[in-house]
Amino acid sequence: MTIYPKNNDPRPDHTYIYGKPKQAMKILKTILLAVLAIIVVTLIAAAFLPKDYGIAESIVINKPRNEVFAYIQYLKNQDNYSKWALADPNMKKEYRGTDGQPGFVSAWESDADSVGKGEQEILSIVPNDRVEYELRFIEPFESKEKAYMKTEDTPDGATKLTWGFDGHMNYPMNLMLAFMNIEEMISNDLRTGLQRLKPIVEAIPSAPPPPMPDTSATH
């Protein structure tokens, strides 16, 4: 290998093994080290961030508790008010099992990345009280989350309905919780769904009260 003196090197400047190319390599090395340091610090920070989160929104529906529950226990009815179910009118839907019973599955598939592919299953039902669900996301990412709907009586005979979502993000994806307000996004979607649900249930005619027994005696 021939090394030329700096002033007598016949090769183009960019072939110097010293001078500007050497300075450029030093700058590049500094940049790479800085990027590496940022990545390391970010991963360390993610290790201390929470991986679980819970969101719940509530609304008061002017209907008795049993009538509200009679509507929300059917998973297919979410197609009428859930923001996620209404996000893509062209999504493909598939149902398995008996709606309103544990084990019923509502599956969806959409070409829209914001909707993707997945399914929701009824895990358990406590009549006139609570429905537990499992959400299984398949595309564009895989994840399993829990959700629930719960009814409570109010003093004036109406019903307080709560829709909740319990999420989990594995390390290092949990770093998204620090940079994206995922909780607020989901909270807004739940609130939108409840606001759509309220007029639907309130518009359903209530069953007429049973007739009063005839207490008149025949003598």
CATH superfamily of the largest domain: START domain
CATH architecture of the largest domain: 2-Layer Sandwich
Integer average pLDDT: 80
Lateral strand order in the biggest sheet:
1-7-6-5-4-3-2
Structural class computed from helices and strand pairing: alpha+beta
Q: Which word captures the global form?
A: elongated
Weakly predicted, low-confidence segments: 14-18
Query: Can you write the helix and strand succession as a string?
Result: HEHEEEEEEHH
How much strand content do the residues show?
A: 25-35%
The CATH class of the largest domain turns out to be Alpha Beta
The Rg value, from CA coordinates, equals: 30 Å
Total helix count? 4
The total domain count is 2
Main β sheet profile: 7 strands, antiparallel
- In CATH, the topology of the largest domain is named Alpha-D-Glucose-1,6-Bisphosphate, Chain A, domain 4
Helix content: 25-40%
* Number of E-type strands: 7
What separation lies between the terminal Cα atoms? 130 Å
Describe the protein's architecture and organization.
With 219 residues, this protein is of the alpha+beta class. It folds into two domains: 18-48; 51-202, 2-Layer Sandwich (Alpha-D-Glucose-1,6-Bisphosphate, Chain A, domain 4), CATH 3.30.530.20. Helices cover 28% and strands 28% of the residues. The protein contains four helices and seven strands, in the order αβαββββββαα. It has a seven-stranded antiparallel sheet. β3 (105-109) and β4 form a beta hairpin. The radius of gyration is 30 Å and the shape is elongated.
